[in-house]
Prior knowledge:
The chain has 276 residues and is of the alpha+beta class.
Amino acid sequence: MSPHVSACIHPKEKRYGAALTIIGCTFWLVIILSILVQKNVVAALILVAIYGALLWVMMKFFSALFRAWMLGNMVALSERQFPELHAIFAEVSQNLGLKAAPEAFVYNSHGAMNALSLRLSRGRYVLLTSALVEAEDNAQLRFVIGHEIAHHVLGHLNPLKQLIRYPAVIVPFLYPAYSRAREYSCDAVGASLLENENEAFTALQMLACGAKRLNHKMNPIAFVAQEQRMLGFAGFCREICLSHPRLTLRVKRLMTIYPVNTTMPKPLSTNTQGEA
Length: 276
């Protein structure tokens, strides 16, 4: 992991991640000790091995099913398929230190703007919705792609790490807090890839707006100012249950890291025919 990527990791991600690891390791240690104190230790270990093998086979099978669905119903990016977008993936992956870029797909989201990263067995993937690709420009997409690839680079999808930490989900609000911190980290990584970090602000705001016609008219400063109207208790109660921070907070945090271009966007066109 490069130093500039490490510097983007949110401090709370490290703290919450450490707490999840400690709790998870404690849980698994208790399980191991409870097995070792059994009268017939060998039989207990064989039973655990059988269940573990069955779980591994099932995970492999469902991963293969999902990959088959992606290949049959999504559009895979390549040098022959959407080469411009594929080139952005390759460049961002190289800049973030990956030896091989994740497999990237675009799929019909029926209007929903989103992007996600996932890991199936040893394969790394990034999925972009068609609405996101349609609404955002190349610089904004570069931020989104950087954000998603950062999940792979920072080890957020590491199967072993997830297995160790999984028991800690029983602790109320801890895993969502960790997940929100991860999003902040990946936002910072994505923004660090841009010549103009302000494109990161608008890329996030576009997830809330979603209107291509309004893309270059957006004012992230005004968007963040909406936080001043947020009811503190209601905002807190809703936030602690979510895996992603609200978009106004994500833009606000990026503005504390990177300088803000205070140039106001141009007013909306009064052309009654609208824009293309």
